Structures are given as structure tokens and as C-alpha cells.
Amino acid sequence: MKEYSDEQILDDLASDENFDRGFGLLVHKYQEQLYWHIRRLVHFHEDADDVIQNTFIKVFRHIKSFKRESKLYTWLYRIASNEAISFLKKRKKRRSLGQTEMLEQLGQDLKADNYFDGEEAEILLIQATEILPSRQKLVFRMRYNDDMSYDDMSEVLGITVGAIKASYHHAVKKIENYLKENIDYAE
Amino acid sequence: MPNKLPKDYFKQLHGRIMQNVHAMPDYLEEDAPLLNGLKARSPYIVPKDYFNELENILSNNRPKLRTRSLTFYRIAVAASFALLIYFSFDALALSSGNTDDLALNEIVSYYMENSYLIEQDMMDILEEEFDDNPVSYFDGIGDDALELYLSSVIDELGDEELALIEELY
């Protein structure tokens, strides 16, 4: 399928006649990018599938109110990020485990997951991101995995570029320390 | 001349190097060699044809769009004020050490769980224990974001709650 520009998609979405086509094009263009962003936050495919569907339902409901003051993709990331964080908070509340138990459980669940093909070091990285506060985790994933610019991250999170840079720096330090403390060099 | 270069090679070299510098994750090589070494591959897998199926699911199960009347905006503003009031009370309760007001905490939890746009900003406020100028936290939110947030508050409310807010305001 030909990839359309955001402007073309938004023009379609602005007209009742072409709305369905515009929404289809938007899903086609952004579903993978948003899915991977969500997946890196929630880790499990079934959870990411729920969150991505909720994200697009929210997008469907609110796209008419998007006034093009920000980039379309940062607006979509904002919705996806908040959906993922809300999901994680609910999951955390349901499980009510301490941090050490939670990290151990996460490691075991990942090893047992059919849709996860990572080694011990990759599980450690995922566990390390789980010790970060929500915003730091988002900042880290958007920069480390998506190579998103600080300006775009600022649009997504609604906070200053300086705060995001500091947050990323702290996140990297914490994760590196966690890896140093937990990597088994004998392997 | 035995060695040839692509046309404008040196003119473009600086730009290409800078592009790579900007694309590089900060700090990693110097400060975080272990983290830097892990970036190469993703350990996550998706089921075969997942994205085609997702596109079909989203095409066939679209929610009905709600028609917005003036009442919608009245309720949105009322709900937002209610949220701010509840939130302020909760911050006061936290600062005075009186955190056993379960009903209030439940209400705040409800809004925290069901709003998705400025949740992060609210978390910032909670983390910072509500400093003297909370309004500054919301400076970065544009009109699009605000309208999206107001809509989200309304979307999550049930008919009974909507009727109650309409009655109150």
C-alpha cells in the first residue's frame, strides 16, 4: 500500500466522506511504530494487543479534535504512552508484589512467553527499566529504542527538553548500574 | 588520478557525520557500555500476520462517534473542575498526613486511571508533593491536548455520572 503523508491522511479524516479511508491509512501507517512502543513498555504481546486497540479507539474518537498544532505522530505517541502507563498501573495494583518479587516474576513470565526470544542480558535490561519511574521509562524507551528527538519527546510528554535530557541521563545511569550489579560474568 | 570520490563527497561529509551524531543515543558508549552493547536486537516476537489482522480488527470494530453538543463542553469543563478540586483536596490531605480518606482517594484513583492525557503531569505533581505553583506544570499543554483530555474525561463517564454532573452544574 502506498504511504500517504500526514497532511493527506488528516485531510481525509477531516471530511465525513473520506473519514473511513483516512482512518484506515492512519492505522496502516502508524500501527507498527505504536505497537512496538507499547510492547517495549508492557512487554507481553497479549497486553500490547489490548493497549494498541484501546489506543486506536481513543484516536478514532478524538481525531476530529486534532487541530494540527503538534505533529500527528507525537499526538499518537502521547495517547499510546498514556494508555500503556495506565495499563501498567492497573497491572501493578492487581499483582501487589514488592519490587524484588515483581522483577523475579517478570523474568519468569518472559522466559515462559512464546512471543519472547531474549537471552538473560535482555531480560535484565527489561527488569532494569521496570525500576524506573513511569516518565523516565517512557523517556528512556523513546530515546534508546525509537531514537526520537528531544523536541518531539517534549511534545509527547508536555515537559521541557532540559527535563527530558536530565531524565534520560538518570535513566541510563540507573540501568547501567543495575546491569553491572546483576550480570553474571561467568555465563 | 587513481582514486575517485563520489560527487560532492566532502561537501556532504560534515552533514552526514552530524546526522549520525544526532541519531546516536546519548551517553551510551562512554557512560553505559553494557547498555550500549544490548541495543542490537529486539527480543520481542509478534504472531504471524498480526499487523494485517490488527488492521482488519480495527477496520471492523470502530466505535460510533458521539455527537457533541454544547452540553458536552459544559460537562467537560465541570468534570475537569471536579477533578481539580478532588485533586487539590488530596494534595492537602497528603501534606497534612491525613491520608485515610478512602472515598476521596478512590475518586482521585478513578480519574488517574481513566484519564490518559495529563496523567503524567499529575504524577509529576504528586512526585513533587504539589509545590507552590502547580499551574506551571500544565504550561506545555496545547489546545489540542486539552480538548483531547476533556473528551477523555467525558468518554469514561457512565450515563448516571453524566446525568449527575449535568444536574450539579
Q: Biggest β-sheet of chain B: count, sense, barrel?
A: none
Helical amount of chain B:
55-70%
Radius of gyration of chain B using CA atoms only: 25 Å
How far apart are the first and last residues' alpha carbons of chain B, in Å? 84 Å
| CATH-defined superfamily of the largest domain in chain A | RNA polymerase sigma factor, region 2, helix turn helix motif
> How many H/I helices of chain B?
9
Write the CATH fold name of the largest domain in chain A: Rna Polymerase Sigma Factor, Chain: A
Tell me how many strands of chain B there are.
0
User: Roughly what fraction of the amino acids of chain A lie in strands?
Assistant: under 5%
How many strands in all of chain A? 0
The averaged pLDDT of chain A comes out at 90
**Backbone structural class of chain A:** mainly alpha
CATH architecture of the largest domain in chain A: Orthogonal Bundle
Listing every helix as H and every strand as E from the N terminus to the C terminus, the arrangement of chain A reads HHHHHHHHH
Largest sheet of chain A: none
Order of helices and strands of chain B: HHHHHHHHH
- CA-based shape of chain B: elongated
Number of helices of chain A: 9
